[in-house]
Amino acid sequence: MTTETAPYGEWRSPIDGADVARKQVSLAFPVVDAAGVWWQESRPEEGGRVAVVRQGPDGVKHDLLPMPWNARTRVHEYGGKSYLPLPDGFVFEFEERWNSEGQQWYAREMMRIEVAEGTIAEVTVYCTGDWDQARQAEHAAAVTLIRP
């Protein structure tokens, strides 16, 4: 076995920061109810998306929000959760931003997901509407945020 000596702080590691970050799945906002235990799960290997997961009394874990859905919203920047368990499913909020012909668009949406036997049975979508840059600026001027 060959031993290599390097100055302090300059030794080579077989593990780099990207390897560590890619494998770090974080769990947040657990909720316990009659249906089991719910939580948000951040998944770096899936582009950092946030899944809503539930483990029932039978011990089986179900991804209730499959790819490509992402339950992450800006509310996470303030330490909030984006889902609310219901007796027959859950509600979650998400935001979309996109560019169309040079115009920046924004929409905040909420979905009510009904779950049966660990899979999505029905989806209802509620949307604020699609806002162009002028509408976003008008809203920003009219609303005072509690937290900037």
Outline the structure in words:
- This protein is mainly β.
- It has one domain.
- Helices cover 11% and strands 44% of the residues.
- It is built from two helices and eight strands, in the order αββββββββα.
- The strands form two sheets. It has a four-stranded antiparallel sheet, with no helix packed on it.
- A hairpin with a 2-residue loop joins β6 and β7.
- The longest helix has 10 residues.
- The termini are far apart.
- The model has no long low-confidence stretch (mean pLDDT 79).
Would you tell me the overall average pLDDT?
79
Question: What overall geometry do the principal axes of the alpha carbons give?
Answer: flat
**Percentage of residues assigned to helices:** 10-25%
Number of helices: 2
